[in-house]
Amino acid sequence: MELNKIRNELSVKGKNGMGFLLSAVVIWSIITIIFLQSLDIQQKNIFMLFSTGLMFPLSVAMSTLLKVEWKFTDIPLAKIGLYLNLAQIIYFPILIWAIIKSPNDAIMIFAIIIGAHFFPYGWLYNTKSYYVMAPVISVLILGLGLFLDGENLWLIPLSMAILLLILFILNYIDYKKKA
User: Fold this and answer.
1) Cα(125)–Cα(66) distance, rounded to whole angstroms?
2) Quick one: which of 18, 102, 114, 170 could link to 129 by a disulfide (CB 3.0–4.6 Å)?
3) pLDDT in tens, the chain (179 residues)
């Protein structure tokens, strides 16, 4: 029972990671705009990767707007969130392979990696929204990727932005119940 109390405290203080989610909505919206441009697919993929560099500064700004606490020295599980986020980088060789060998699939693979990495946050923040949305995002994006042609790849980042916004709303509801 003590563990659930700690997880709920982290959930409330960190607001279920909503600052990062809101930043991700903005970044996937930017990626949507990139994929709507009449650029070569390799350029789109490079700009997609560059846009992710906005994640940390944008997350700091969004977390400030949402009044999220950043210092969790009193919560033993706080560092796990950082490790879970860094763990997704291990999958980036798959993304690099896709950019080189199958450039039209890179956006789908990137979106699946991002969607799937949310799953353990369900445990960390003691909320079902991450448990539900991680596989939903991964499967929906896979479905889109299987059926889209090169002209309509912009639907993948647009779908990610919408799905992340849904995840944000679900996390907000969970946060309000706990707070």
Assistant:
1) 17
2) 170
3) 588 888 898 899 889 999 999 999 999 999 999 999 999 999 999 999 999 999 999 999 999 999 987 666 667 777 787 788 888 889 999 999 999 999 999 999 999 999 999 999 999 999 999 999 999 999 999 999 999 988 899 999 999 999 999 999 999 999 999 98
Instruction: Give the residue from 6, 151, 177, 178 showing the smallest Cα distance to 75.
Output: 6
- SS3 labels along 55-81: HHHHHHHHHHHCCCCCCCCCCCCHHHH
**How many domains is the chain built from?**
1
- Token look-up 């448990």 returns 131
157: Cα separation from own chain's centroid? 11
**C-alpha to C-alpha distance for 5 and 17, rounded to whole angstroms:** 17
- What would the two tokens of residue 67 be? 């009044």
CA distance 91 to 88: 6
Q: Kindly report the pTM of this predicted structure.
A: 0.93
The two structure tokens encoding residue 142: 């896979």
For 89, the token pair is 């980088």
Task: State residue 97 phi and psi, 5-degree precision.
Answer: -55, -45
Residue 149 to residue 155: CA distance in whole angstroms: 10
Please check whether residue 156 is in contact with residue 45, taking contact to mean a CB–CB distance below 8 angstroms. Answer: no
- Its domain, for residue 105, covers 2-178
